[in-house]
Design brief:
single chain, 19 helices, pyridoxal phosphate, cytoplasm, amino-acid biosynthesis, seven-stranded mixed β-sheet, Aspartate Aminotransferase, domain 2, 2 domains, binds D-serine, four-stranded antiparallel β-sheet, alpha/beta
């Protein structure tokens, strides 16, 4: 990571300036750095952006409205935003080998909404408008619009189920994606926990979706996107891939060939802040056939682009082109494998039996705990994780039976495979010594637990030793 010594003075000045206006915010910024430095962060979707990326976000680019597209804005004076968006899109196209890139989405859900509406518009609106003759959109009658709305609302989407590792935005009913489409979800093989391509093909043949979504937020394995495209083609569906979790592994050339979604999917979405290690935001990549539809993200589902964030995306994408980033991406996967092996050899149970990406999904029911209890006990012990459902989870999405672990953040700090073995030892030591408290009827509860203070303190000491070996933003003193 960037040597931060030279930036320390600048950050101190900035914080003084902020502190004079609102000292509580200045303090929260300082405290967040202290907390991030002092925690063993294993949340699979988090990372540490570089100081150039962080610095790019804090500029006056934030002050400009620029609704529209590059060179075609609804506000005057957008020449610098045009440069910013063009550079971000150019880096994204080149890095991922995509025909088209759209840098405006503010988040992952915005990227997915942009993609869904682009696919709908591409497949529904154009034929439907043709059917209505050569009339301009503004000439359509209310009855014509009713017909169009009915067609949009009757389309089908098939995405991975939440408990198999899919994401809320892949058709989960409480999310807008599960309301704007007729949705069904595919799971994983109940014995192996792996994606079952034959079962998915059969389900797609029966359901006939317009969109098949591939991608995950808690599946610890790679996907064969050539097979996914074959399945989509066999039923005339569009393949959309949400690579938010593994975009850094694609950019870093860990996922190549059939594991790289870009040559196979018509539309690919991502966030930029997970394994890609950029600012909090989204991106959409597409083939040129879908470019015009994706370009309508604003005003279809997006408001004014966040120019300061698009600028930071450009900086992060420039970083991701380097040999150093490729090395980082490979180490992320090596570290996840070392963490998985460390847990397995100490008696842990892993969904799918291991990992070949950046995620490890530990089933904590073998420790007699719910995910909620394990998450809290680990937090007390200086280890930050998040609870997560396992396939067909008997404890549901709130208490869960799993803990999701990820290596992008610790790898950014320089953690090695032997450090990850020590992390695995710390996790199992804490979980083996955590016991659920019993409810009034004598059964184990799902939320409360007991963990001796000396166990938690001992684990925090071990965490501090590892963290001291790999400081965050070394040289940055506030
Ligand atoms: N919340 C992100 C994650 O943790 O995977 C996905 O949106």
């Amino acid at each position: 990571m960037t040597d931060a010594t030279a930036l320390s003075g600048a950050y101190r000045t900035l914080l003084d300036v902020i502190g004079k206006v609102e000292p509580r915010i200045c303090q929260a910024i300082r405290d967040e750095l202290t907390d991030q430095r002092a925690s063993l962060k294993l949340i699979a979707s988090e990372n540490y952006a570089s100081l150039p990326v962080l610095a790019t976000m804090g500029t006056w680019l934030s002050d400009k409205y620029a609704e529209g597209t590059i060179g075609h804005r609804f506000y005057a004076g957008c020449q610098n935003v045009d440069v910013v968006e063009s550079v971000a899109a150019e880096h994204a196209r080149e890095l991922f080998g995509a025909e088209y890139a759209y840098a405006q989405p503010h988040s992952g859900i915005d990227a997915n909404l942009t993609a869904y509406w682009a696919i709908l518009a591409h497949h529904i609106e154009t034929p439907a408008l043709t059917e209505f003759g050569s009339r301009n959109v503004s000439e359509l009658s209310e009855a014509d619009w009713e017909t169009l709305r009915a067609r949009f609302g009757s389309q089908r989407l098939l995405g991975m189920s939440l408990d198999a590792g899919g994401h809320l935005t892949h058709g989960f009913r409480p999310n807008v994606s599960g309301k704007m489409f007729h949705q069904r979800s595919y799971g994983t093989n109940p014995t192996t926990g792996l994606l079952d391509y034959d079962a998915l093909a059969a389900q797609a043949a029966e359901f006939k979706p317009l969109v098949i979504v591939a991608g995950y937020s808690a599946y610890p394995r790679r996907i064969d996107f050539a097979k996914m495209r074959e399945i989509a083609d066999s039923v005339g569906a569009v393949l959309m891939v949400d690579m938010a979790h593994f975009a850094g592994l694609v950019a870093g050339k860990v996922f190549t060939g059939n594991e790289n979604p870009v040559p196979f999917a018509q539309v690919v979405t991502t966030t930029t802040h997970k394994s890609l290690r950029g600012p909090r935001g989204g991106l959409v990549l597409a083939t040129k056939d879908y470019a015009g539809d994706v370009d309508r993200g604003c005003p279809m589902v997006l408001g004014g682009p966040l120019s300061h964030i698009m600028a930071a995306k450009a900086v992060a994408l420039a970083e991701a082109r380097t040999e150093a980033f490729r090395d980082y991406a490979h180490r992320v996967v090596d570290n996840a494998r070392a963490l998985a092996e460390g847990l397995l050899k100490r008696g842990g149970t892993l969904v799918t039996g291991g990992t070949d990406n950046h995620i490890v999904l530990l089933d904590v029911s073998s420790f007699g705990l719910t995910g909620r209890q394990a998450e809290s006990a680990l937090l007390d012990s200086g280890i930050v994780t998040n609870r997560n459902s396992v396939p067909n989870d008997p404890n549901g999405a709130w208490y869960t039976s799993g803990i999701r672990l990820g290596t992008p953040a610790l790898t950014s700090r320089g953690f090695t495979t032997s450090d990850m073995d020590e992390v695995a030892a710390m996790i199992t030591d804490v979980l083996k010594k955590t016991t659920p408290t019993t409810t009034k009827d004598g059964k184990p509860g799902k939320a409360k637990y007991e963990l001796a203070q000396e166990v938690a303190d001992g684990s925090k000491d071990r965490a501090a030793k590892l963290l001291d070996l790999h400081p965050l933003y070394p040289g940055l003193t506030l």
